[in-house]
Design brief:
Blueprint: H1 2-27, H2 37-111, H3 115-163, H4 167-173, E1 174-178, H5 183-189, H6 194-203, E2 206-208, E3 215-219, H7 223-239, H8 244-273, H9 283-288, E4 293-294, E5 297-298, H10 299-317, H11 321-330, H12 345-355, H13 360-367, H14 378-392, H15 399-416, E6 421-427, E7 432-437, H16 444-461, E8 469-474
Parallel strand pairs: 7-8
Antiparallel strand pairs: 1-3, 2-3, 4-5, 6-7
Helix pairs in contact: 1-2, 6-8, 7-8, 10-11, 10-14, 11-13, 11-14, 12-13, 13-14
Length: 483
């Protein structure tokens, strides 16, 4: 349209020029030269040319308009067809939904299951199948890797054994039990090993029977547990009757005797120190310190030594000697309570003596001896000083033994935190951990998965040489009384 207006404007301008020329020719003075015929013909020619161009443009615009009209008609037809197709698609979708609903209802009727239940059952079967396949494949990969590494690992371990000094560790974790004859070894092992298996499961101690004449070895990082096992084995050997039921009875008796021995040893040390009024309920715990070590130092002996040091310093400073001795003697009592996992033996010991009526000054000194709470009194400072003197004197402690014991305790803690675990024992100097599970909570398949989880946790949380074997034991017992 703008082009047409431009052409019309040009024609009008040309006409105005012609009219102006004519008017000028009619009114100009006589002295002005008139417009010649050639000039007038040229003006007419220009007007004719402009009119011709205008006609051509109008024709082109007309053609374009016809094409646009045809295109609009085609678009309208396509729109109408699309609307029709959409209506057919919606009808088909509704029909498909009705057929699907009918098919699902018929399937539920034939199968006797709802779709939701069938889907859940199929997913459960698929999950079980995938889990079993994954476990099988994992075992295959593990066995293959172990087989490939066996030769090289054996060579490396042999070199390492030659370089390691084990005298102190053996002294700290192994107890020898003498036998009257070699025949007794076979009776200890029992038919197909049933006696030795029952002994190790009940006591949590490794029983090593080798070619050494007249001797078997008990190995366990926990001295209380090892002593109970030693007393059990000594009585079994002396009696000569060895079977799983007899082992359990003798072990229960040995445990009770050990508790009584703890009470007696605690009372002896208390009398020697001249302490009065310590609750009798604390005596078994105090006596158990005699079977505990801290960095290789006997904890009961360390506690008694601290009491003497604190009493001597209290006398020099003019403080209450009885109170200082009492606090220093009881400061590590929590070590007999916290034997597995992490925790503050200072705070635990303070809470224990508080429940049994100890004075607040003594309780605070015990809780503050590792600065877990701020020391406030002279008694607090004297207990810390006595502890430091007893611990730091030459030959008092052995870091390697305590680190070894902490690793074994950590092994048992990792296993026992799993759901369904009844108890766990670190065996074979930390090369094996045996886990007893509750049979009503852990089935055979779950036991395999539990062993894998424990092994993974041990790999991620501990640093250790060689390999650690994880054995999960699931045992069901049925007992009735005939009367």
């Amino acid at each position: 349209m703008e082009v047409v207006l431009g052409v019309v404007a040009a024609i009008l301008a040309s006409a105005l020029v012609v009219q102006a020329l004519i008017a000028r020719r009619q009114h100009v003075p006589a002295t002005v030269v008139a417009l010649g015929p050639d000039e007038l013909a040229a003006a007419h020619q220009e007007v004719a040319s402009a009119r011709s161009r205008l006609d051509e443009r109008e024709q082109r615009l007309s053609i374009r308009e016809e094409r646009l009209s045809d295109l609009a008609a085609s678009v309208q037809r396509d729109r109408e067809q699309l609307q029709a197709d959409r209506g057919e698609l919606e009808s088909s979708r509704i029909e498909l939904a009705e057929l699907t609903s009918k098919a699902a209802a018929e399937l539920e009727r034939v199968a006797g299951l709802r779709v939701v239940d069938a889907r859940a059952e199929v997913l459960a079967l698929a999950a079980d199948s995938a889990r079993e396949e994954a476990q099988r494949r994992a075992r295959e990969i593990t066995d293959e890797a172990i087989q490939r590494a066996e030769t090289e690992a054996g060579r490396i371990v042999a070199i390492a054994i030659e370089r390691v000094a084990v005298a102190q560790t053996a002294e700290a974790v192994v107890t020898a039990v003498e036998l009257p004859n070699e025949e007794m070894k076979g009776r200890i092992i029992g038919r197909e090993g049933r006696n030795i298996r029952a002994f190790e499961q009940l006591t949590g101690v490794t029983l090593m029977v080798d070619d050494t004449p007249g001797v078997v070895l008990l190995s366990c990082y926990d001295p209380v547990r090892r002593e109970a096992a030693r007393q059990t084995l000594v009585e079994l050997v002396a009696d000569g009757r060895i079977d799983p039921v007899r082992i359990e009875d003798v072990h229960d008796k040995a445990t009770r005797n050990l508790e009584q021995a703890c009470v007696e040893s605690a009372q002896e040390v208390i009398d020697d120190l001249g302490l009065r009024g310590i609750a009798r309920e604390l005596l078994p715990t105090i006596g158990a310190l005699g079977f505990r070590t801290s960095f290789g130092q006997n904890v009961l002996q360390h506690s008694a030594e601290c009491a003497r040091l604190a009493g001597a310093m209290a006398a020099e400073f003019g403080l209450d000697i009885e109170t200082c001795r009492r606090a220093a003697f009881l400061h590590d009592l929590g070590k007999a309570v916290i034997t597995h996992g992490e925790g503050s033996h200072a705070l635990e010991g303070a809470e224990l003596v508080r429940r049994h009526g100890e004075d607040d000054v003594v309780v605070h000194a015990i809780a503050a001896h590792h600065n877990e709470i701020a020391p406030e009194t002279a008694v607090d400072v004297l207990v810390q000083a006595a502890d430091a003197i007893s611990s730091s004197r030459p030959g008092a402690r052995h870091e390697s033994v305590d680190a070894y014991v902490r690793r074994l305790e950590r092994l048992e803690e990792i296993a026992t935190r799993q759901p369904g675990v009844d108890r766990a024992y670190a065996m074979q100097a930390g090369r094996e951990i045996r886990v007893m599970v509750l049979p009503d909570r852990v089935d055979d398949q779950a036991a395999q998965q539990l062993a894998r989880r424990i092994a993974d946790d041990v790999e991620h949380e501990l640093t250790y040489p060689g390999r650690i074997k994880v054995t999960v034991i699931r045992e069901t017992r049925a007992t009735e009384m005939a009367q």
